[in-house]
Amino acid sequence: MKKETKYRILKIIGYIVVIAGIIGLFLPFLQGLLLLAVGLYLISLGSPSMREKLKIHFKRNIKFSEIVDKIDRAIERLIEKL
Questions:
Q1: Long-range CB contacts (within 8 A, 24+) of 48-56
Q2: How many domains does the chain have?
Q3: Which of 10, 11, 12, 61 has its CA 20 to 30 A from that of 19?
Q4: Alpha carbon distance 46, 26 (integer Å)
């Protein structure tokens, strides 16, 4: 699979997760903020400017930054396997 196709698939998944995050803001059993963050992160894989903005935002919160680093490593492994 081409790298561009992989990033497009991740971007589509990111949009779906963002929509689920928005729904999760109103439903008590979904973690809305977490889903929004993960969805925006997936979308940012294809957009360098958004990626830089998210990195700046994530560095402000140390615990969240650690979680994002773990997600980043997992996504890189997923991309390599596809």
A1: none
A2: 1
A3: 61
A4: 28
Per the structure, the complete domain to which residue 74 belongs is given by: 3-81
Name the more confident of 23 and 55. 23
Could you report the per-residue pLDDT of 2-46, keeping only the tens digit for each?
A: 777 877 888 888 889 989 988 888 888 878 878 887 888 888 877
The amino acid at residue 16 is I
Q: Nearest CA to 17 among 35, 34, 41?
A: 35
Residue 21 burial (10 A CB sphere; 0-12, 13-18, 19+)? buried
- For the question of whether the overall pTM of this predicted structure is more than 0.70, the answer is no
Mean pLDDT value of segment 56-62: 73
CA-only gyration radius of the chain, Å:
13
